[in-house]
Give the backbone structure.
Amino acid sequence: MVDLDPEISAMTGVASALTPLDEDARGRVLRWAAERFEVTLGQTRTAAAEEDEESPTPVVASSEYASFAELFENAVMRTTTDKALVAAYWFQVMQGSSGFQSQQLNTELKNLGHGLSNVTDSLGSAERAKPALVMQVNKSGKSKQARKTYKLTLAGINYVKALII
């Protein structure tokens, strides 16, 4: 089971609550929450760029990363399961794949020097989490070592979104 610290749990809950809302509604909810909990919100990078029209550096939306390395660098991961989930997010959400295999994830992680000793165990932990962050959608072969295809659940996608800064 994935150990969620209170901050990550709160971020996951906020992401789940805001995902179905349109942009205006999200803004209202976030402003209400900031006022309710007496938090001062800083200016977003996009708003800062709009104020400074002569800014030579284009502002890139936080959800757009040109490479897995950029996404990985902008995620706060505490466990090997978190690393596997960020790699899964890259393939499924950022690349639009319908599913992914554990070897595919570990290859990308190894390319960054962060390969996992047992990526299948990490995915198994995410699969057993409540709610499940990953689900197995296919298995080719009968042995325990058969190639399995996985897919992030909505909870898994929201969990990874909360990891990305």
In short: The longest strand covers residues 134-140. The helical segments are 6-18, 23-36, 45-51, 68-73, 80-94, 102-111, 119-128, 154-163. The beta strands are 100-101, 134-140, 147-152. The chain has one domain: 1-165.
